[in-house]
Amino acid sequence: MEAVKFQAGLTRPNQEVKVTNAANAANVANAETATPWKSVMKQGLVAGSLGSIASALALLHAGRRETGSALPPINAVSHWYWGDRSLHRRQADFTHTAVGYLTHHGASVFWATLYAGATKDLEAARTPKGIAAGALVTSAVACFVDYRLTPKRLTPGFEHEISRSAMAGVYAAMALGLAAGAWLSMEGERRRNTPSGSAETATTERGAG
C-alpha cells in the first residue's frame, strides 16, 4: 500500500506540470492568433528604424565623400515637398534636414512593415538565412519602386547628390538594418512566447525518470 501511495505521489506532480505546460502553450497560441498584426507592426517599427538609421549613415558618409558635405543627400529627400530648392543644400535646417530624414525614416518603416506582413506566416523566413534573404529582397524591391514606378517628384531625391554606386551602398545598408531589426524582433517574440514552465518540466521529468 505504501508503495502505491509513493508511486502516486511521484506521478501527480508530473501530471500537474504537464497540464500547466499545456495550458501555457495554449495561451501562447491564443495570443499569437489574437494579435498577429501587433507583432507585424512592432517588427516593422524596429526593423524599419534600424534600416533607416543604417541607410542614413550610409547617405551621410556618401555625401561627405562625394560632395564635401554630409547633409545634401538627407536634405534632398525633402524635394517631394520643397521641390528643386532642396537640392544641393549643405546646411542643416528643420525645413529640409528634418523633413528629409523623417520622410526617409517613414519610408523605411513602411517597407519593413510590408516585409513583416508578407512573411508573418512563413516559417522559413524566420531563420537567419530567411531573414537575410527577405531583407535583401525588400531593399531591392524598394529601390525598383523608387526609381522605376515612382513619379520623379516623389523619388528619394538623394540620386541628385550621390553616385549610383553610393546609392547601391545605401540600399545595402538598408537591407542590413532591416535584417538586424527583424532578427531582434523575432528573437524577442520567441522569448516572450516560450512557456515559462517548459524548462522546469524537462528537468522534473528527467528527475522522475
Task: Describe it.
This protein is mostly helical and 209 residues long. The protein folds into two domains: 1-34; 36-194, no CATH class. Helix content is 78%, strand content 0%. The protein is built from eight helices and no strands. Helix 6 (128-149) crosses helix 7 (164-193). The longest helix is centred in the N-terminal third of the chain and has 33 residues, at 2-34. The radius of gyration is 25 Å and the shape is elongated. Residues 25-34 and 199-209 have low confidence and may be disordered.
Keywords:
elongated, 2 domains, mainly alpha, 209 residues
Give a summary of the structure in a few sentences.
This protein is mainly α. The protein has 8 helices and no strands.
- Helical segment tally? 8
Average per-residue pLDDT, rounded, comes to 84
The count of β-strands is: 0
The total domain count is 2
User: Mind telling me the C-alpha Rg?
Assistant: 25 Å
Main sheet overview: none
Poorly predicted runs: 25-34, 199-209
- How far is the first residue's CA from the last residue's CA? 21 Å
| Percent helix | over 70%
Beta fraction of the residues? under 5%
Tell the overall outline: elongated
SS-based class: mainly alpha
Element pattern in H and E? HHHHHHHH
